[in-house]
Amino acid sequence: MRAHAQRCLLTVVCTLILCTSAYGGMEERLGLGSRATALGGAFSAIADDFSAAYYNPAGPALKLTPENQTGISMHFGMVWARSELSINLGQVSGNQLRFDTPISSNEASAVDHSIDPVMGFTLGIGFDLERLFKIPRLKIGLALFLPARRFFRWDVQGGHAIQWPMYTDRNQSLSAMPWVAVRLHKRVSLGVGARVGVSVKTNTEAVILPTEAPTDTPKTELGNDVRIAGRIAPTVGLLIQACSQLRIGLTWRGEIYTNDFGYTDVDASNLSGASLGTFGYTHHLAHYFSPMTATLGLAYTPLSEFTISSDLSWNRWSTYLDSNHDNYGGKITDDTLTPRVGIQWRFHPSTQLLGGYFYEFSPFDNQGGWTNFVDPDRHVASIGTQTNLATLLGNGRRAINLSWHLQMEFLRKQREIKDWHRFESEKEARANPGWPGWQAQGWGLNVGLSVDTEF
To answer: Which of 18, 36, 167, 336 is most buried (most C-beta within 10 Å)?
Structure first.
């Protein structure tokens, strides 16, 4: 038995040394549930609540429903995030390039770089169909992320504009994640799900009216047809209880983006003295992009009160699309790997202390060219607790878990130096908003509270 435990421990230690993962979706950026967020997102091997819809949909199937419960679980949570980000534009002083000028005070690059605080709600529900309808080994559920201020928000900017691609509109879009999980064996489960994002289709018809006098300004009548649509990406998960102390999770998430697309038609046939006729254009803009991701996760429990978890993910950022649906030939983004580790310690029969850390490598590299995507690497640390109120109050019939998290991110200093050789002319280089270079850094705060219950 001791040799068996030692082999499990050796496997975990090796994985923790090698393991890395990458940030992908807004659910992971803001946290889909306080427990998963407090663990730093190292959750794919222990996902057994509503957030399994994102981290590993196979997880809930291995969690057995107690005899005194009906098999219905519910979740409600809220999250609030604030970021303080700064950009300084470079200035040549003698033979040195100094970064002392805040970008907001530079008239040539007067862009609003303030990032609005983000607030959202998480909702979840799950059903054990074996308990409810005698369908063996099967569970289903749904998780939602709802921005509090709007269902979706986005800005369209060219790649030359100085911008924070991982903030602003990226974290303010509705997301729905249905899932189904089946227990293939007492130690193996399989889950499938989907991420559904919001897209908008806008069709515009414009008619330019004729003028009554040569000096009159032509008038235009506009007709808009706006429709909300959805984009779907699949999620597949596998969970294996390798031994009593070790769980292995595998998750694959498909690429997804939400966008604004449609057409604009202009009828100018009524203009006297002009032969413009009818003309128009179509548009297809990507606003929120989340890459294809493959994740390996391990969770090791050396003691009944203590669990350490870690994830390894590969994110295919090389297919990134910006808000103008441009990939730049895959030259400005790279696939990324980032380390994640989480710790759970049950220091009281009713309460667990949760902690996590990960380091995010940015996928963006402007390479001194005309793009100005600002996204420094960052350290992210989190802490939280989960308390079973029923156990705390001495009534263990119904589990009611109250969780909270606090997460801090510290953006490392990023410096971009423009190379005029990468522009068609020196004049074009000097006209770039980021010329001759810029420096960015900042920090972010993410707090949340959630309640989970089982009936």
So the answer is: 36
